[in-house]
Amino acid sequence: MAREGMAMNETIDWEGKGLIGVVHLQPLPGSPRYHGSMKKVCNAAVADAKAYEEGGAQGLMIENFGDLPFTRGVGAPETGAAMAGGAESIRAMGVELPFGFNVLRNDAASALALAAACRGAFVRINVHTGAVEADQGIIQGEAYSTLRKRAVLCPEVAVWADVLVKHAVPIGDLGIEETARDTFHRGLADALIVSGVATGAATEVDDLRRVKGACPDAPLLVGSGARVDNARELLEYADGLIVASSLKVDGVLANPVDVKRVQELRKAMG
Fold first, then answer.
1. For the chain, how far is it from start to end, CA to CA, in angstroms?
2. What is the pLDDT of residues 48-87, one digit of tens each?
3. Which segments of the chain does DSSP mark as H helices, in order?
4. Are 199 and 168 in contact (CB under 8 A)?
């Protein structure tokens, strides 16, 4: 299983602190804003992936970010098929970075299926344990089902799980430390992710400190808001950064990835 003896650099080959670039897929077939061309979706995904690779990222996270509104459960089959097409396009165009999948909002089963079919290294699970209230309604963690499905499909794939995920509020009052302990020790996540309140919002350094203190053996990633000016501060406690917003042209989320911004962040990380 991925957890046994897992260090972050055994999931993705890096030394020191890691940078994971998020490939925000354009709206996919079946979603309200799909523009009718998977070729355009794939071309944009490849361009972003190449920019991350050229800029010095060590891995990619592929998300169906354009598919608003998201489901709280298992997504449509066409979503998984389209994400597989995007991932294979990235591979076919020579991008060698390892990648993982986040099927929004919380479709762990499809993410694992994609990782198994497309040789993914990890999956991101927004709500792995506990429950939250989000714009999709009540979302409950399914660690029991997720870990068993992984054992069957792709036991080598790591589960990266959010602690008090963004765009949601927890149901109950465990606090961030106890939530982290439950996610890592009881939910058996391989790595923990801490974010700000929303996409692009800065992660609080104190939240990272508290999670690292509660789970010192857990690989810890920043899930939002990392920039050139705060990277070193965040990496005092975190082992890596998952970034998209600040690496887009002009820092605008809807724009393509800017190679120079990736290079600048990579340099700022030390």
1. 32
2. 999 999 999 999 999 999 999 999 989 999 999 999 999 9
3. 8-11, 38-55, 77-92, 108-118, 143-153, 176-181, 205-214, 231-234, 259-268
4. no
Each residue of 134-181: pLDDT tens digit? 999 999 999 999 999 999 999 999 999 999 988 989 998 889 999 999
The closest alpha carbon to 101, from 117, 120, 82, belongs to 120
pTM, whole model, 2 decimals? Answer: 0.94
Q: Which two tokens stand for residue 239?
A: 């082992």
Residues 6+ apart with CB under 8 A from 247: 21, 52, 55, 257, 258, 261, 262, 265
Rounded-to-integer distance, Cα 53 and Cα 55, Å: 5
Torsion sign over Cα 263, 264, 265, 266: positive
DSSP H or E segment with residue 14: none
Nearest to 102 by CA among 57, 165, 153: 165
CA proximity to 191, closest of 3, 60, 1: 3
Instruction: For residue 58, give the nearest of 189, 246, 243, 248 by alpha carbon.
Output: 243
**How far, in Å, CA of 75 to CA of 99, rounded?**
20
Domains of the chain: 8-268 (3.20.20.70)
Identify which of 48, 50, 54, 55 has the alpha carbon closest to the alpha carbon of residue 63.
Answer: 48
